[in-house]
Amino acid sequence: MSAARERVNLRRLIIAIVGMLVLSGCQLDVVVDVVVEPVGTGMITVTAEADAELVADVPTIADELVLDDVEEAGWTVDGPNPTAGGGLILTLTHDFEGKDEATNLLRSLGPPFNDPVIGRGQDGDSATNTARANLGLPDGFDSFADDDLLAAVGGTPFAARFEQAEANPVNSMSAVLRLTLPGELVDAETNAEVLEDGSLRWTVPLDGTFLEASARSEQAPSAGGVWARPVATVALIVLIAWVVFMTAFIGYVTFARWRRARRYRRRALP
Hints:
By secondary structure, the protein is α+β, with helices and mostly antiparallel strands. Helix content is 41%, strand content 30%. The strands form two sheets. A seven-stranded mixed beta sheet has the order 3-4-2-1-7-10-9. Strands 5-6-11-8 form a four-stranded antiparallel beta sheet. Strand 3 (76-82) and strand 4 (88-96) form a beta hairpin. Residues 1-9, 149-155 and 222-228 have low confidence and may be disordered.
């Protein structure tokens, strides 16, 4: 499935959920959680949660969410599942093998997570990890729609209902981006709230403004990695010495056998 098609599918999912929430006077909370592992692989988790009021007002919401296209795009779908408080929670997860795949997956989400880029540079045992994004909905709910979506539905979805209900992103939803990077954070190039577990958090502005999120970490060799290189070097030297010794030993044995055989042949001559 193309990135453009996947992006449209996820936007339709988001706008459909928001539309149902607005019509029922409830709110949608969206959290995107990105975890980058020390080797550059990782996982993206998208969580959308609504409270019990939504379930009461729109009891068929779970049946109305069509998630087939999202699953075809490679996302693992969990839910919608009931929460302890009587609401619903929907979780989408997708792993990635490197910075390019992570960037493409994040871009498939669309607004309010705009122009995200995950970067990684490798220099021997060290690595630099970076992340940036423009967070916000500059055009309100219209930000969710692109040309394909507008053509599919004939205009901004739920536009008339949004206007009638005086609904806007600020009073209808919230959005958060969380990021975990390996290594030590570079404070001068990181503008996020640092949580107790070391992860980063940005609260997305939904009032028409932008937040330019950025983060950087320097990943030096771990303590185990520092010791691993000398140990590996010593092991290599020992291996080479053993190979040389065995080669010499085999050569000596071969030569000795040849000399013994030669002497035996000379004695056997009349």
